[in-house]
Amino acid sequence: MNKPKPIKPFKTVEEEAKFWDTHDITKLMKNPKTPLSKLLPLEKEKQTVLTVRLQKSVKNKLEQVAKSKGINPSTLSRMWLIEKLYEIEKHFE
CA nearest 23: which of 6, 44, 7, 8? Predict the structure, then answer.
């Protein structure tokens, strides 16, 4: 039996990038079946800044992956940090 193709909730890559740049994915990490409409918007302004030093090759790879996903490297980094923190938090529950 063939699986149906997933429905794309975004009309353009830019629309999708803007959505992921502005919404909290914590609920989605806890339950992947959470509707996108239930994701809360991120705070408008970031309260703090974290500087991370990387090797140039790591930064280049990060930029390549981010570009392939249609998002900026900062957003991808933030998403990965949130995912990892969630994994760690889940491990200690």
Answer: 44
CA–CA gap between residue 64 and residue 56 (Å, rounded): 12
CB 13 within 8 A of CB 70: yes
Q: How far is CA 20 from CA 36, 56, 79, 90, in A?
A: 10, 25, 9, 22
Backbone angles phi, psi at 6, to 5 degrees: -65, 145
- Please count the structural domains in the chain: 1
Is 91 part of a structural domain of the chain?
yes
20-71 pLDDT tens trace: 778 877 777 777 787 777 777 776 666 788 899 999 999 999 999 999 988 8
